[in-house]
Design goal:
The complex is a heterodimer of chains A (about 240) and B (about 120). Chain A has about 240 residues and is mostly helical. Helices cover about 80% and strands about 0% of the residues of chain A. The chains are: A mainly alpha (about 240), B mainly alpha (about 120).
């Protein structure tokens, strides 16, 4: 590593390259998913400020969709927090796999904790692919540019869509609400690590509406735990066979 | 203690911070703390991923089957059909998210135009 590569201009350059990586197909798809989320949050009765606040503080889209789902269902704080926590556990292994790639000998701990807030599916996928070609001491700068810009762009998308959603014709409006389900149906299937996750998704799709009719207050938790448990049992049984 | 339980401007923000931010960033911070101590292939993580996937899938199905807003005016069969069409197009069309999204939206618009 040359001395110039470690200097402040070097960091700025990599920060800007990270920011530029947002303007890509994955970045565009994520923005379209946030268009759908803004419509969803508005329909759930959230205000513009609350929706923007939620976008910036929670960031992970599945967690926000679950949180808004809990608000729509009228769930209490504990049930909502538990459901969101279950949907966000998957972030831990993602962070665990990304942080060692980002850490250089002189990286400070608080920088990693700060940057970890940006970790969600899209930035994780982009970074895991890009890091190979980035000098190690520049990776935190790159990821800061990437994550920070993704959050900023999508906070803007959410705010704009929230304001104009009221004036949209019913056809466009209906299309807007279908964006979130379509995005997750496809991205959940594509990001599955093992067949068991595909089973979990199909069982969860069936159990969600079923439990909504039987136990509306606990439908999400019940569907997640039952569907996940069944898929895991299937995973163990299948592996048990020769 | 629901989202609307306390009639004060700060309560929804407190709700979002506790049920949203804390419930999410706690896992990210735990990930930084653990560094590289968990094996990605461990069975516990398979269970964790299965539960998270089933939970999000349940939310998605409920958004389609019990929608609010403009989608509620669309017949159930068309909502489920459009979502299914998007998913099938995704599976057959090279597994690109954009293909699934566009096909699902096209099916919805076509159905709404015909009804």
């Amino acid at each position: 590593m040359s001395a110039a590569g470690r200097s402040a201009p070097g960091r700025l350059r990599w920060f800007l390259r990270g920011a530029a990586a947002c303007f890509s197909i994955p970045g565009l798809i994520l923005a379209s998913a946030f268009v759908g989320f803004a419509g969803l949050a508005r329909e759930a009765g959230l205000t513009l400020a609350q929706t923007v606040f939620m976008t910036a503080t929670v960031w992970a889209l599945p967690a926000k969709v679950v949180l808004v789902g809990a608000v729509i269902a009228g769930n209490g704080l504990l049930a909502a927090a538990f459901a969101v926590a279950l949907s966000s556990v998957r972030l831990t292994p993602m962070v665990v796999s990304l942080v060692p790639e980002m850490r250089a000998p002189r990286t400070r701990g608080w920088v990693l904790y700060l940057l970890s807030h940006f970790i969600a599916v899209t930035s994780w996928v982009i970074a895991m692919r890009a890091f190979r070609d980035i000098p190690r001491p520049m990776r935190t700068a790159y990821y800061g540019g990437l994550g920070g810009t993704l959050v900023a762009i999508n906070v803007g998308v959410v705010a704009i869509v929230f304001v104009i959603a009221e004036r949209l014709p019913p056809l466009v409006s209906a299309g807007l609400f279908l964006l979130t389900p379509l995005y997750f149906l496809t991205s959940l299937w594509g990001s599955a690590r093992e067949r068991a996750s595909h089973v979990a998704m199909l069982v969860g799709l069936a159990l969600g509406p079923l439990f909504h009719l039987i136990v509306p207050d606990l439908a999400l938790l019940a569907a997640g735990l039952t569907g996940g448990g069944l898929a895991y049992a299937w995973h163990r049984m299948r592996r048990g066979r020769p | 203690m629901t989202f609307e339980a306390i009639d004060a401007w700060w309560w929804p923000y407190a709700f979002i911070l506790l049920a949203g931010w804390l419930a999410t960033d706690a896992w990210r911070f735990l990930g930084v703390y653990l560094g590289g101590r968990i094996a990605e292939e461990s069975d516990l993580l398979v269970l964790v991923r299965c539960i998270a996937t089933a939970l999000v899938a349940a939310v998605i199905a409920n958004l389609v089957v019990f929608p609010n807003g403009a989608l509620a005016g669309v017949p159930l069969a068309l909502r489920v059909g459009a979502a299914a069409a998007g998913f099938v197009a995704y599976l057959l069309g090279g597994r690109h998210i954009i293909v699934g999204v566009l096909a699902g939206e096209a099916a919805l618009f076509a159905g709404m135009a015909l009804l």
